[in-house]
Amino acid sequence: xxxxxxxxxxxxxxxxxxxxxxxxxxxxxxxxxxxxxxxxxxxxxxxxxxxxxxxxxxxxxxxxxxxxxxxxxxxxxxxxxxxxxxxxxxxxxxxxxxxxxxxxxxxxxxxxxxxxxxxxxxxxxxxxxxxxxxxxxxxxxxxxxxxxxxxxxxxxxxxxxxxxxxxxxxxxxxxxxxxxxxxxxxxxxxxxxxxxxxxxxxxxxxxxxxxxxxxxxxxxxxxxxxxxxxxxxxxxxxxxxxxxxxxxxxxxxxxxxxxxxxxxxxxxxxxxxxxxxxxxxxxxxxxxxxxxxxxxxxxxxxxxxxxxxxxxxxxxxxxxxxxxxxxxxxxxxxxxxxxxxxxxxxxxxxxxxxxxxxxxxxxxxxxxxxxxxxxxxxxxxxxxxxxxxxxxxxxxxxxxxxxxxxxxxxxxxxxxxxxxxxxxxxxxxxxxxxxxxxxxxxxxxxxxxxxxxxxxxxxxxxxxxxxxxxxxxxxxxxxxxxxxxxxxxxxxxxxxxxxxxxxxxxxxxxxxxxxxxxxxxxxxxxxxxxxxxxxxxxxxxxxxxxxxxxxxxxxxxx
Length: 558
Known about the structure:
By secondary structure, the protein is mainly α. The chain has a single domain, classed as Cytochrome c oxidase-like, subunit I domain (Cytochrome C Oxidase, Chain A, Up-down Bundle), CATH 1.20.210.10. Helices cover 65% and strands 1% of the residues. It is built from 18 helices and 2 strands. Strands 1-2 form a two-stranded antiparallel sheet. Helix 2 packs across helix 14 (387-417), helix 7 (200-231) runs antiparallel to helix 8 and helix 8 (245-279) runs antiparallel to helix 9. The longest helix is centred in the N-terminal third of the chain and has 37 residues, at 70-106. It starts with a strand and ends with a helix. The chain crosses the membrane at residues 33-56, 76-97, 118-141, 161-186, 198-231, 251-271, 283-307, 319-341, 353-375, 395-413, 425-446, 466-486. Pathway: Energy metabolism; oxidative phosphorylation.
C-alpha cells in the first residue's frame, strides 16, 4: 500500500452548529452525522414496518379474517411493503453507510454537495410521517406497494394520493443522494487515487447511484400521471377512459426491478469490505467483482418485464426477458464465488459481523436460485402472485440486505461510537434472526407451489398449519430485535473502549480516531491505494505510523 499526504480542507462553519448528541437532531453538514441520522431514522421505520409485518402474520395465523377487517389488512399490507423498502432498506444501505464511508474511501473531508446531502436526509422523516399518518387521517392506500391501476384508481383516493406524495418525496431524496455519490466518487478522489484502487463499496455505490439517477425519475413521472388519473380523472392508465394499465406496469417495473439492485448492490459492497478484514485475506478477484457490479447495473435496466409474464406480453418479449434475467445470474454468481474464495483458507474470526455476512450469502443464494426459476415463463405463470414470489422477494431483500445491515452495524459500531458491542449478544441475535427468518419464509415456497395467493387476508384452511409455522418464525424475528437494541444502547453507554482500529483494518476510515473528528482526520488524509493488502509485508505497505494503525499489521496478517 502506498500512503501519500494531501492537504486538509477547511469546512466553512458559522460556529452555530450544535455539539454533542444535539447535532444528530440538527441540519448538520457533516457526512458522518448525516449517515447516522439515516441509520437511526431508518431503524425506527424498521420497527414500525416490523409491527405492521407482525400484524399481517397474526392475521394469517388463521384462515379467516378475524384480527382486522379486510380493508384494514390491505392498508397494513401496503404500508408494510412501502415502509420496509423506501424507508428502511434503501435509505440505510445507501444513505447511512454511503454517507459515512464514501468520503473516507476517496480521501475527502465531506460529500461533494454537503447541503444537498442534508436536504436529501431531511426529506425522509416528513415523507415517512406523511405515509404513516395517512392510516389515522384518511385511511392508508390499499393497492399494495406496487399501486397497480385500476385497483389504485378505484380504492379510496385520499390515502392513495398521500402514498404517492410520500413516495415522490422519497424518490427525490434518492435522486439527490445518487447525484451526490456520483460526484463525490468521481470528482473528490485524492490525486493519485485511481478508480481501480477504490474499496469495493465505492464501486457498489457508483453502480447503485447510476441506477437511481436513471430509473427513479421514471417512477416519479409515472406516479404523477397516476395521481392525475385519481384526482383529475384523466385516462393515462384507467381502462374505462381508454388508458392502458399494462403501460403503468412497464413504467413501474422499469424502476422497481432496478430498485432490487439499489437495495442489494450496496449490500454486496459492504460484505466485500467486512469479509477481508475478519478473514485477514485480500478480497479475491477485485477486478472481476468490479466488472460484475457494472454488468449487473447494465442488465438490471433490461429485465423489468419478467414481472409481467402474465400481463399479455408477446412471446418474443417473454423470450428476451427470460434470457436477460437468466444472464444476470452470471455476474451475481461471480460475486458469490469471490466471497467464498475470500473466506477459503482465511484466519476467520467468527464474530457477529462475519456470522451475519455468511447468513447473507446463504440466504441470497437461495433467493437467487428461486429467482432464476421465476425467470422461466412456464414456472412463473404457475406461481405468479402466489406466496412463492413473497418468499423469493424476502430472501432477496431481507436475507440479502437486512442481514448485511446488521453485519455492517456490528463491524462499524466501534467507528461510530468508539466502543465495542457485546459479542455474546451479537451471536445470539444472529442465531435467532437466522432461524426465525428461514422458519418464516422457507415454508412460503410450499404455500406458493400449492396455490396460496398473496395479498389476501383469508385462505383455504389446508394452508393453516404452514401459515402458523411462518407466523412463529416472524415472532422469533421480532424477539431477535430485543437483544440487538439492548446491545446497541448498553454498549454506547458503558461498552468496552474500542480503540481507533480494533479490527486492524487497512481501509481509510480506520486510519483515524474512533469516532472520527469533524473533518475525518485531525491532520493530513492518507492516500490508500491497496485497501485489501492483508498478508503483504510491512515494507511493501509503506504505512506511516501517524495513521493510527498497528505498525506490525503487515507481518501479523501473513
